Amino acid sequence: MSVDTAEPSEFSPRQNAVLEQALQLLVDGGEKALTTSGVARAANCSKESLYKWFGDRDGLLSAMIAYQASKVRTFERNGERLTAASLHDHVVIFARDLLEVLAGDVSLALNRLAIGQSNRDGSKLGKLLLERGRRQIDRRAMALIDAGKRAGLLRFADADEAYHTLYGLVVSDLHVRMLLGEPGLKDTARQAERAVTAFLRLYGTDKVLAEMPVLS
Amino acid sequence: MSVDTAEPSEFSPRQNAVLEQALQLLVDGGEKALTTSGVARAANCSKESLYKWFGDRDGLLSAMIAYQASKVRTFERNGERLTAASLHDHVVIFARDLLEVLAGDVSLALNRLAIGQSNRDGSKLGKLLLERGRRQIDRRAMALIDAGKRAGLLRFADADEAYHTLYGLVVSDLHVRMLLGEPGLKDTARQAERAVTAFLRLYGTDKVLAEMPVLS
DNA sequence: CACGAACCGTACCGTACGGTACGTATATGG
DNA sequence: CCATATACGTACCGTACGGTACGGTTCGTG
């Protein structure tokens, strides 16, 4: 396992601590609770410092996204040989991780924030969130899918298409429902298993299909 | 074709016109642009009337959702006999309609609004949006899927599970990306076709699979 | 015509936010 | 010991919003 190297802390430790407090505030009370005065009070810093460090409120929001993205690191698979069983397991683990990330407090809060602003700031935050937050997980999935293809376990023409199919099967409308505040959507395990079964049925080669339960 | 009977206009025509203006304002400028004064000005009505009709700002937002939901009516299939080809076509049409609805200006604006508020109002708007906005499309899809099963074209144990699979295949992460403001996601036709192909491959009986192109 | 209800336009109030300015404390470096 | 920089805390300003009050106007009804 090798961890991705992140640019070492875009911000100073003090600033990171402030951003942490800001995220906590956002998670607890939503965007409305995220006032510059509130952040300063919660983080024991001055508003003047906030504006010096982050420019303005939007800069603070961007910094929060960048900071959170820098915290979430995803591990690359090592190059061990894939079998039908281990591919299945890896994809299931990926699916669960994906659902877990999307269901996280901070992730939901930041997505809500970016979505709420997306039609008045030209979707600056949204772009940031997609680029910094999703690239990691996208790369991990693509690497996994590609490895499956090289091992003769998966078959597809367009890897991106296959990945988006997997994503849709795993997430369905869960993300939007969670963003809308629907409670009780935590049964990720079964959902992940079903999604992976369907994905392998669609893209698996005979080697994989042979080990799957028959359609009853 | 029979149109669903909607409770005839929860609001007066004048109020509907006001809500229409409010929606326009929301679409154009986001939540921040949706001020009570702005709505009153745009709709040529008084703030006092707004508060008399809708109680407070939240009541106005709820009314906007209810009004929009009352506008979107979906048609029920008539009971003609389904064949493999017509099932395919109907599902494709459904998929396209679904993407078209989700990509609509007003739909996106209302979803953004509800999501933005969902962690400070106990997700009242979110619940409303899911209940009033989604039930129609859900029912249409369930009816279609059920008809497919009765015609011996589809096979599944849990219709809800099958529907969510279809939804995920069709929408993938498109909805969230659109909510985040990502531009250029309008190639719905191909996306719908691919999704339906995958869905039928997963849930179609031999009658359906026989008419599908082989996996190359 | 007279009366009342509904409604419009505007002015107003309290509040809370984003952003700025200032006085003070702490720390670093010569 | 002084000088400079950094940051804290507080007070302040302008603005804009949600919500209310009020006078004037339209319109339906007896």
UniProtKB/TrEMBL annotation, chains A, B:
The keyword Cell division does not apply. GO terms for molecular function: DNA-binding transcription factor activity; transcription cis-regulatory region binding. Gene3D superfamilies: Homeodomain-like, Tetracycline Repressor, domain 2. InterPro entries: Homeodomain-like_sf (IPR009057), HTH-type_TetR-like_transc_reg (IPR050109), HTH_TetR (IPR001647), Tet_transcr_reg_TetR-rel_C_sf (IPR036271), TetR_C_Proteobacteria (IPR039536). SUPFAM superfamilies: Homeodomain-like (SSF46689), Tetracyclin repressor-like, C-terminal domain (SSF48498). Keywords: DNA-binding. Residues 12-72 form the HTH tetR-type domain. Residues 35-54 bind DNA. It comes from the Bacteria. This is TetR family transcriptional regulator.
